[in-house]
Design brief:
6-stranded antiparallel β-sheet, 15 helices, GAF-like_dom_sf, PAS_4
Length: 449
């Protein structure tokens, strides 16, 4: 018995499939909007929804009526035509709604597009690019620019926020073809307080009331850029530490100690300091001596300055602080009078801000590595960790130097015995030396400054 086709059933099955797909697209859009997705992302989803509906809606009134919340309307129903028109003009209506003059909510409620855009965290700007007239800006952008109230639109782009740098920021974007989406990343914009933020700006062509406009979205990229800069700084610090570690571990102690000032210069310049010094505890443990230092401004001509010696008692506060946390960060010593007095003892009068790290091999305080600047300076936490890492390397270097010095001292009696009664061996003198002792630890053979 021949079978007969059931076009009505097939049509209902296809319509049901498309209804489910459209409902899925609508649910995704609602979820994205609730999650605070960017305007650019929402527009892409709306266009995808519109294109799908138009591609399958011809001859299928069930799909259109599903969007109108009336699933069984006839094909030529008014609700079906309205739903189809809504999808067709979705993005174009957005521009027309934005062009409506802003009025107090008591006089006239916001259009759906304006209500949506006012809730976004991203800034939105509708711009007529030929005359550079601003047709709309949402609340997020107004807050970024420091404007309390929306101006009367249209307004010239240069007059919207003259001190923000908005016109300069958009200039390279406006030079690009305006018939395609474009974007620029991490563009600087000045905030009301004077600090500089950065925004990712995207431009999208939009037709509104027979005018070719640009819909600009501003996404705050300040935190991301700060993280990128911090990561770059971290990588640079790791490279510096790797170089210093290899140099301190591979070269002999005496020539390396002779070049210690140049190593301190590398550390000081890298950290943006004007002064870097290495202070070590003296042999009797009662005085701290500036063993090596570097200054950005060279001292004037004249005889070499005497090695600064500071009574340990005057640095008791510093020793106590470093004993608790190993590093000390002072962005402005004027905020801490006790710290200012200690810094003056150690760094002189030009150390208003400082970063200090302790040398504590074998858990015994033996000195301090310090960088300073003559003005307030904000040191990064990774720079603080870098200085402590350098201090640890110098501690290991001093331990290695002590080991070599002790080994040399043990060799002299054996050499004297080998010579016999014909004469006594005399140790080779390596210039003036400073001895450092702490808990049985003595370092010899380090030339003085």
């Amino acid at each position: 018995m021949p079978t007969t086709k059931k076009p009505a059933a097939d049509s209902r099955s296809a319509a049901g499939k498309h209804q489910r797909r459209l409902r899925d697209l609508l649910n995704r859009y609602d979820a994205a909007f609730s999650a605070g997705a960017s305007l650019d992302s929402l527009l892409r989803q709306l266009e995808q929804l519109r294109d799908y509906a138009l591609r399958h809606a011809i001859g299928e009134a069930q799909i259109l009526s599903a969007l109108a919340a009336q699933p069984f309307l006839p094909q030529d129903s008014a609700a079906g035509r309205q739903a189809r028109q809504m999808l067709t003009d979705m993005t174009h209506n957005l521009g027309r709604q934005l062009l409506q003059p802003a009025q107090p909510s008591s006089a006239k409620p916001l259009s759906p597009a304006q209500a949506m855009l006012e809730q976004l965290e991203d800034g939105v700007l509708l711009l007529e690019p030929v005359g550079q007239q601003v047709l709309y800006a949402n609340a997020a952008l107004m807050e970024w620019l420091g404007l309390a109230d929306a101006p009367a639109y249209p307004v010239a782009l240069s007059a919207l926020a003259p001190g923000s740098g908005l016109t300069e920021a958009l200039r390279p974007l406006l030079a690009l073809p305006k018939d395609k989406p474009s974007q620029i990343a991490a563009t600087p914009l000045r905030r009301p307080g004077g600090e500089v933020g950065h925004a990712d700006i995207r431009a999208r062509p939009l037709r509104a009331d027979d005018h070719d406009c640009l819909l600009l979205t501003f996404h705050d990229a300040t935190d991301r850029l700060t993280s990128e800069q911090l990561l770059t700084r971290h990588l640079d610090i790791l490279a510096q530490l790797a170089g210093l570690s290899a140099e301190l571990a591979s070269q002999p102690a005496e020539p390396l100690w002779a070049r210690m000032s140049s190593l301190l210069e590398r550390v000081g310049r890298f950290l943006g300091a004007d002064h870097c010094l290495l202070a070590l505890l003296d042999v009797d443990g009662k005085q701290v001596r500036i063993a090596r230092e570097w200054r950005r401004e060279a001292r004037g001509a004249g005889p070499p300055a005497e090695t600064p010696v500071i009574p340990r008692s005057k640095l008791y506060w510093l020793e106590q602080q470093l004993g608790q946390q190993r590093t000390l960060q002072l962005n402005d010593s004027a905020d801490a009078p006790e710290a200012a007095d200690v810094l003056r003892q150690l760094l002189g009068d030009n150390g208003q801000s400082a970063l200090l790290a302790t040398l504590r091999p074998r858990q015994c305080w033996r000195g301090v590595l310090a960088v300073s600047a003559p003005a307030p300076h904000s040191w990064l936490w990774i720079e603080q960790h870098m200085l402590q890492s350098v201090a640890d390397m110098l501690s290991n270097f001093l331990d290695r130097s002590q080991h070599h010095s002790d080994a040399r001292a043990r060799r002299w009696p054996r050499r004297a015995s080998a010579i016999g009664n014909g004469g006594a061996a005399t140790p080779r003198r390596i210039g003036p030396t400073s001895c450092i002792n702490c808990g049985g630890w003595t370092l010899r053979g380090l030339p003085r400054r």
